[in-house]
Amino acid sequence: MSSMPLPPLDRPRLLVVDEQPANIQALYRTFASDHQVFMATSGRQALELAQERRPDLVLLDLDLPDLDGFEVCTRLQADPATRHIPVVFVTAHNDEAAEARGLALGAVDFIGKPIRPAIVRARVQTHLLLKRQGDVLRDLAFLDGLTGLHNRRAFDERLAAELRHAARDRTPLSLVMIDVDRFKRYNDHYGHLAGDDALRQVAAALRAGMLRPMDLVTRFGGEEFACVLPGTDLPGALAVAERLRAAVAALRMPHPTSEVQPHLSISLGVACTTQVPVLTPQALLAGADAALYQAKSAGRDRVQGFEPAREGAAP
Ligand code: GH3
Ligand code: MG
C-alpha cells in the first residue's frame, strides 16, 4: 500500500484552557513557535473552540469560572466529534484524588503547576504523536485496501449521518448504487489480477466524477460501488450517475466477452429520499437496488431511477 498518502503534517493544533491570562501566556510562549494555539478562559468557550477548531490536544485547567475542567473533559468525551482529542490536565491541584478522577474521565495526562516548559513540551509531543497514529489507524479502518476508496463501513456511517441532516434540514439526499457489468466474465477472460486492476481504474474514474466536496463514493463490496449525494434531488443524482457511466465507458477498457459493449461498462440505480416513505438507510438502499436491478434487466450500461410502486396500482 505504498500509494496510501499520509495526512500532511500541519502544525499541531493546541487548545489551552485557563482562566488566568498569565498561565495562558506561559503556555502560549511554550508552543506558539511550532503549534497553532487556541485559547479559552472558560469551560463553555473551550467546548465551542473544540467543536470549531478540532484541536489535536487540549491543555485543560481544572478551575474554570463556569464548568470545571472535569465537566469539560466529560463533555468532550461524550461527543463522537471530540472524543478522540486527548485531554491533558494542567493544574495546581496536585492531590491524588483529583488526578485519579481526571484520568478516570479519560484524560491522558496530568501536569502540575507551575509548569516547567521543557517537561510540558516533551509530554505534549508524546501525546500528539499518539494522537496522530490513532488518526491514521482510524482513517485506515474506513478505507478499502484495493481501491483506496472509502469502504462499506464509511458508507454506513456517512449515510446514517447524512440522513439525519437531511431529515433535520428538510433537504433531499440521493443514493447511487453501481455495479460493473459482466465482471465475472472479465475475470474469467483476463484473470483476477487484471480484474483487480480494472476495479482500481473504475474506482479512480468514479472518484474523479465526484464534483462536490460532500459527495462520497465508496466501494460497497466486490464489484459494487455506492455514492452518497447529500443535498441532491433525483434529477441531479440521475445527471451525476450518467456522468459516472460515461466516465467509466471513456476508459475504453476492452471487454471482449461482454455482450453489452466491447469495453467495460457499469449499471447504476438511483434513489432519492423524496421517493421513500421513511428516511432509513434500508429504504433508500432498497430503492437504489431495485433500480439497479432494472438497469441490469433492461440491458446494462445504463442509469435507472427508482420508480416507487404507486398506491393502488396493480401489482
Ligand atoms: P452483472 O452484469 O449481472 O453484474 O454480471 P457480473 O458478472 O458482474 O455479476 P456476478 O455477480 O455474477 O459476478 C461478479 C464478479 O465480480 C464475480 C467476482 O469474482 C468478481 N469480483 C468481486 N470482487 C472482486 C475483486 O475484488 N477482484 C476481482 N478481480 N473480482 C472481483
Ligand atoms: Mg456485476
From TrEMBL:
<feature type="modified residue" description="4-aspartylphosphate">
    <location>
        <position position="61"/>
    </location>
</feature>
<dbReference type="GO" id="GO:1902201">
    <property type="term" value="P:negative regulation of bacterial-type flagellum-dependent cell motility"/>
</dbReference>
<dbReference type="GO" id="GO:0043709">
    <property type="term" value="P:cell adhesion involved in single-species biofilm formation"/>
</dbReference>
<dbReference type="InterPro" id="IPR000160">
    <property type="entry name" value="GGDEF_dom"/>
</dbReference>
<protein>
    <recommendedName>
        <fullName>diguanylate cyclase</fullName>
        <ecNumber>2.7.7.65</ecNumber>
    </recommendedName>
</protein>
<dbReference type="Pfam" id="PF00990">
    <property type="entry name" value="GGDEF"/>
</dbReference>
<dbReference type="InterPro" id="IPR001789">
    <property type="entry name" value="Sig_transdc_resp-reg_receiver"/>
</dbReference>
<dbReference type="Pfam" id="PF00072">
    <property type="entry name" value="Response_reg"/>
</dbReference>
<dbReference type="InterPro" id="IPR029787">
    <property type="entry name" value="Nucleotide_cyclase"/>
</dbReference>
<dbReference type="GO" id="GO:0000160">
    <property type="term" value="P:phosphorelay signal transduction system"/>
</dbReference>
<dbReference type="GO" id="GO:0052621">
    <property type="term" value="F:diguanylate cyclase activity"/>
</dbReference>
<dbReference type="GO" id="GO:0005886">
    <property type="term" value="C:plasma membrane"/>
</dbReference>
<keyword id="KW-0597">Phosphoprotein</keyword>
<feature type="domain" description="Response regulatory">
    <location>
        <begin position="13"/>
        <end position="128"/>
    </location>
</feature>
<dbReference type="InterPro" id="IPR011006">
    <property type="entry name" value="CheY-like_superfamily"/>
</dbReference>
<dbReference type="InterPro" id="IPR050469">
    <property type="entry name" value="Diguanylate_Cyclase"/>
</dbReference>
<feature type="domain" description="GGDEF">
    <location>
        <begin position="171"/>
        <end position="308"/>
    </location>
</feature>
<dbReference type="InterPro" id="IPR043128">
    <property type="entry name" value="Rev_trsase/Diguanyl_cyclase"/>
</dbReference>
